[in-house]
Amino acid sequence: MALKALRLVLFLVWWDSAASFNAQFGQPSEYSTPNCHQYSLPGCPRDFNPVCGSDLSTYPNECTLCMKIREDGRDIKIIRSGPC
Length: 84
Known about the structure:
By secondary structure, this protein is of the alpha+beta class.
């Protein structure tokens, strides 16, 4: 019985540390898809609302990230709002 309890405690400690690691380093499951269909090209608004892309580049706003996606054909996600 004590061995099962010890295994459970060790598993829970491991699970918590894995969750902390994923939150700290932004694993792909936490990335969000930019809402590119709301922007009509060829231009983007000049508002400064930076986003960090999964390519580790900072974009001035979501629209400029969408332009990069359309130009390169790559699937770039948003890691977080704000600079990288």
